[in-house]
Amino acid sequence: RVAMRWRWSLGVDLTLLILLLIKLLILDLDIKTSGTGCVKIQKIECDNCKIETEKGTSVLQSIKSHKIDIRTNGGKVIGLGTLYGNTDIRATEKGSVNIEKLQGTSINISTEDGLLKTKYLYAETSSLSSVAGDILLGSIHGNTSLQTKTGSITVDSSDGSLKASTHHGTIDVYVSQLRKVDLKSQKGSITVKVPASLKAYLQLSGRKVDVSSEIQLKETQSASKDDHVTISGHMNQRNETDKWIKADTQNGKVCLKSQSWIQSVKLKSS
Ligand SMILES: *[C@@H]1O[C@H](CO)[C@@H](O)[C@H](O)[C@H]1NC(C)=O
Ligand SMILES: *[C@@H]1O[C@H](CO)[C@@H](O)[C@H](O)[C@H]1NC(C)=O
Ligand SMILES: *[C@@H]1O[C@H](CO)[C@@H](O)[C@H](O)[C@H]1NC(C)=O
């Protein structure tokens, strides 16, 4: 095993480009750039992979590590191929995160103003948050928690437990299979799309609640209080109490629509 430790500090105008084309077994990777210094890492396995940039872009391709730790204060974080390992990414100011595939036990990502985007997310526990940036996710698996203040939250397909909350943003989620799905917005609208065959208990509340006609809710109960409507009922089952979807918005509207998995794939690729 080869041990390497790098630490570079560069001036504002310098761009640092690190290309590791050979697959090295590295214990610790520790890279720091300043100004607009960029980092590019390809095909590497390491125990700890730590990268810190100011405005520079970090490009990571096919990384396998026990711990991937990335910080940027305004730069872009781009992941190509699979990033494999427990991951912690923090992008402040306008820093954005765009990753193709993430896989690990624990994954945490936060942005402030920048977009947070991932095509595939496989984790036991993941926690993704942004202040004003949008959270845009493809296919997610495991226990996921999403939070924004003003950014919108979009999930193309979720098959685990999902918790999403936003203050001003909208939420748009396709649930393909579920455990517990808990969606909350203060001011935004919530759209929940499900396959018509999904087994679930649903509780939807908002200024207005729209349930599309292809969805058969059974034992429906409806209550309204101060401009706030709550509709609850079962879809395709009655007894499985651990499978439920709750959507609650103070001032927005809730829509429940049916969508097939094929449609969700088509929409994703279009
Ligand atoms: C993610 O955040 C949780 C809660 O703060 C923490 O327990 C966990 O270790 C973090 N994971 C990583 C990979 O940093
Ligand atoms: C989600 O978390 C629960 C415990 O909180 C755990 O038992 C379960 O395995 C997790 N799900 C996945 C897909 O890892
Ligand atoms: C639901 O549970 C009740 C008893 O709690 C039982 O009588 C009924 O047959 C169950 N229904 C289904 C669809 O499993």
From TrEMBL:
Pfam families: DUF4097 (PF13349)
Designated name of the protein: Family with sequence similarity 185 member A
Domain DUF4097: 93-253
Keywords: Signal
Range of residues in the leader sequence: 1-28
InterPro entries, per database record: Toastrack_DUF4097
